[in-house]
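Feature request disguised as a bug: please show the residue count (536) next to Xylulose kinase in the output. Example input:
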Amino acid sequence: MAERAARRCCLGWDFSTQQVKVVAVDAELSVFYEDSVHFDRDLVEFGTQGGVHVHKDGLTVTSPVLMWVQALDIILEKMKASGFDFSQVLALSGAGQQHGSVYWKTGAGQVLTRLSPDLPLREQLQACFSISDCPVWMDSSTAAQCRQLEAAVGGARALSRLTGSRAYERFTGNQIAKIYQQNPEAYSHTERISLVSSFAASLFLGSYSPVDYSDGSGMNLLQIQDKVWSQACLGACAPRLEEKLGRPVPSCSVVGAISSYFVQRYGFPPGCKVVAFTGDNPASLAGMRLEEGDIAVSLGTSDTLFLWLQDPTPALEGHIFCNPVDPQHYMALLCFKNGSLLREKIRDESASGSWSEFSKALQSTEMGNGGNLGFYFDVMEITPEIIGRHRFSAENHEVSAFPRDVEIRAVIEGQFMAKKIHAEALGYRVMPKTKILATGGASHNRDMLQVLADVFGAPVYVIDTANSACVGSAYRAFHGLAAGTDVPFAEIVKLAPNPRLVATPTPGASQVYEALLQRYAMLEQRLLSQTRGPPE
Ligand SMILES: O=C(CO)[C@@H](O)[C@H](O)CF
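Example output, currently without the count:
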């Protein structure tokens, strides 16, 4: 076999809900190696579905921490067997599913520093966790703890201003509070609490890695302006919590050199740097190379918006996180539950199940849809909390139905206007240099992207984000190599593949949607007041 040319590279890891994935990226920012281990398929003994266990109460959702540990053993052995040259790895970083938490048992830190290179990690860490089934982001069993936390700091809006989000069941502080309340012995035998991201970094480091600012923003514990733990939040969740969390660090920090375990067992160079791991969504923002004023719109089962913000306005909807690549800035995440499943329903009802019919309807109806507006929430929407289908005529009268073509445009315009209105509520503003990056299944429909460009008044690009969290982590590892030089992230990643322009705003679009957006916001408030009473 031809000798593999030496290829200096960085690794990007993603400890996600369903798998552990890795990519190797060379100095030209080309991905030349990728691999993954799927929990359900490759670690059957843990019996997960979609990487998790949904408990009988239907609310508690956990994943076995030793499954994550063993997945790393397997993927490294697969890389070794494939002949991957670990000696070329200059640095590595990674991502973890956000909000999940790992509970290291007293004494585990000593075990981490003394791993034998002759044995796999799973065997040596077997007894290192005080909680074996870790709460993950799909858990919604901590409503009581959320209310307690909001009460402790002066309400939902006060907590949002402090930590970037109101209390959410999946957020780590509330999960820790539940464990302290329901399993105080396990909590007392816990010397360190990690996020999934900092847990993974700890494995590579051979010691406890700190939580980074960006993923730490998903805990309802970190003051996102001062970047320190909120004493009020810590105190409301559990005692002696700060000593178990350690001090948070900037996401671009080099947290140390790789553990000798990996040098001796796999051949990593002793100087291989470990750059702080972060959450999967912040890592994806890095992988998509978002810059100030850009938006990424993931059009999937649920639609997710990633925003780059300089001056955030925390709200009762959405999440503000510290920015993973610029410590002075922020990012925001907005989730819209009624995404592709809703679009597919309307396609079946109003376009005979055909996307080409759906597109023809968008092509044959005018921007602004003659003033007709629709809200389509077949499941309880997250942003905002409304359910049902609500259609309004140009005179703001609620009507029971629209003609087929009008219905189709009303769905798409409504979904995209909601995105712009709630993005602006978080402090986002379209800038002259704004790019909208569209990803996910629906981003293959050019006519939908034309509506997106028209509603936002900005050009829409498509970008391959299949491995965005991994690739973003490898990019952040390269950025870590330049630590201390003040080289901006954008400079480090300028050689990466560029997104492809797909749609630009139709002339006159901003005039049409400026008025429509105001009506949409007013009608949304009307629906909200009908369902939940006057706003806070
Ligand atoms: O809860 C989420 C973000 O707030 C999810 O996107 C998880 O990060 C998925 F792992």
